[in-house]
Write a structure and sequence with these properties.
The complex is a heterodimer of chains A (about 160) and B (about 300).
Chain A lengths: L5 H17 L3 E4 L3 E5 L8 E6 L3 E8 L2 E6 L4 E5 L3 E2 L18 H6 L6 H10 L5 H9 L4 H10 L10
Antiparallel strand pairs in A: 1-4, 1-7, 2-3, 4-5, 5-6
Chain B lengths: L1 H15 L6 H13 L5 H10 L12 H18 L6 H16 L11 E5 L6 E4 L3 E5 H6 L3 H16 L2 H4 L3 H13 L7 H25 L3 H18 L4 H10 L9 H6 L3 H13 L9 H11 L4
Parallel strand pairs in B: 1-3
Antiparallel strand pairs in B: 2-3
Helix pairs in contact in B: 2-3, 4-10, 5-7, 5-11, 7-11, 7-12, 9-10, 11-14, 12-14
The chains are: A alpha+beta (about 160), B mainly alpha (about 300).
Chain lengths: ~160, ~300
């Protein structure tokens, strides 16, 4: 039975504080698909295509935009609404912990309210109209189309840029 | 030896505490200690496991789950109302809506923002979670310019950004669902868990449909969405008074059949206009309506049958 050495514990604590403070923060892409952009603007040049579950390393932040590095080493910007960080809540630890999981773990595992739950719901509710929803979701407005719309309407960041 | 390890685990938790850091960081810290032989693999796994936050509220519903809830709510709406078929108009509404979404707090959403016109003369607009938004033909007829349409869509985008739909889910349903979801280690659910989860899913949809379609959101959510509409709309460059011009057409119209859905689910237009006026007056710069936009609105909305 060895007693914990206080000096070793203090060194360990300092070490840990550094590890936590300087460890790069990993972000997960939470939207189906998105783009890595050259600058912190929606209409900035795109550098790479990203998809749900992709891991990114946070570099810096600027007004809702996060500078990140992809696993392939590409540096660019992504809007904060496209990524998620798992929060650790020490106060919430209780006996139920073992049977629960974080939102991103559930998302990564493809669990939660998912395709399988929808299929099971649809089998019970033939009257609910998913076909039109699928059609509705097929129509995608590309960033270039939005940009053209804004420019022609003298809107957004293109105002007064005639 | 056990005391040392327990003490190490305690120390790691203590060090992590002030940072409320991400799980990946806990994993990393624990990995380092394990690699250095300062913590056993078993303790590392236990530590990473206990660092998982408990999901218990609407804000912890993840993006993909919100999408599946939204799809089903949208499907329920489309079982009640037919979609209005007009490809050019649908494309235009989607472009206006997506432009506003770019300047909202949530430009990125799981499967993108989608808008659809419902084939009814009833005046109403509905936002399903996940960014699936509906406006009726009756509402569109009351808009005279792109600013009014843009502002109405900005109000609906505001409901989605503030997750008003998800907030109407009863907390007990989420607690049950999260518990069930957390139990399964595998990706596919067992038949009994799937049946239970489907029942919870039905109840979740029922909670949202009741608020969204039947009773309407809490009045404070409507005012909050109006505030967000002014913020997002003005940032897009739309004259926020566009929403006032639309609301004015609704004043004193509560008895008309066309406004039935709207009046049941929204505060009176007069009270909203009053509150909006204050928000608009507080803007540093007020974008002005422009003819080029009104012209294209008239071109598309003019095709309304």
């Amino acid at each position: 039975m060895q007693k914990p050495k206080p000096t070793a514990a203090i060194i360990l604590l300092i070490l840990l504080v550094f590890v936590v403070a300087f460890a790069a923060e990993t972000l997960l892409v939470k939207v189906q698909t998105t783009q890595l952009r050259k600058g912190p603007q929606f209409f900035s040049q795109t550098l790479a295509a990203l998809k749900a579950g992709d891991r990114l390393e946070k570099v810096s932040e600027n007004a809702g935009w996060i500078q990140v590095k992809t696993t392939a080493g590409v540096l660019g910007w992504i809007h904060s609404s496209a990524v998620e960080t798992t929060k650790l809540n020490l106060l919430a630890m209780d006996k139920n912990m073992k049977t629960q999981a974080t939102a991103s773990e559930v998302a990564l595992a493809g669990k939660g309210f998912n395709k399988q739950v929808e299929a099971s719901y649809r089998a019970k509710h033939g009257e609910v109209n998913f076909a039109i929803v699928d059609q509705m979701l097929q129509l995608k407005i590309l960033p270039a189309q939005i940009e053209d719309f804004l420019k022609k309407g003298n809107l957004g960041e293109f105002r007064g840029a005639k | 030896m056990k005391t040392t390890r327990t003490f190490g685990v305690f120390l790691l938790l203590a060090a992590m505490g002030p940072f409320l850091a991400g799980c990946s960081v806990v994993q990393k810290g624990a990995d380092i200690l394990t690699a250095q032989g300062k913590m056993s693999e078993k303790d590392r796994d236990a530590l990473v496991k206990t660092s998982e936050a408990v999901r218990s509220t609407f804000s912890e519903i993840n993006e993909e789950e919100e999408y599946y809830i939204g799809r089903a709510v949208a499907a329920m709406i489309l079982s009640r109302y037919a979609a209005y078929k007009n490809d050019a108009l649908t494309q235009y509404i989607n472009t206006v809506g997506n432009a506003v979404a770019v300047y909202s707090d949530r430009p990125e959403i799981y499967a993108g923002w989608h808008f659809l016109v419902l084939d009814t003369e009833e005046v109403n607009a509905l936002a399903a979670p996940g960014g699936m938004i509906f406006i009726t033909k009756g509402l569109l007829r009351r808009c005279r310019d792109e600013e009014s349409l843009g502002m109405v869509l900005a109000h609906e985008v505001g409901h989605v950004c503030a997750k008003h739909g998800l907030q109407s889910i009863k907390k007990s349903r989420l607690v049950d669902a999260f518990k069930l979801i957390g139990q399964e280690a595998v990706q596919r659910y067992s038949p009994e868990n799937l049946a239970q989860l489907t029942n919870i899913f039905e109840n979740v949809l029922g909670d949202i449909a009741e608020q969204l379609i039947e009773r309407g959101y809490d009045r404070k959510y409507e005012y909050q969405a109006d505030g967000l509409a002014v913020k997002f709309g003005a940032k897009t460059g739309f004259d926020p008074n566009g929403i006032q011009r639309f609301l004015k057409t609704m004043v004193g119209d509560s008895s008309s059949a066309s406004g039935k859905g709207w009046f049941k689910t929204h505060p009176t237009p007069e009270s909203r206009m009053e509150s909006l006026q204050k928000t608009i007056a507080s803007l540093a710069a007020l974008p002005k309506i422009e003819a080029v936009r009104t012209e294209r609105f008239v071109r598309y909305a003019g095709s309304l049958k």
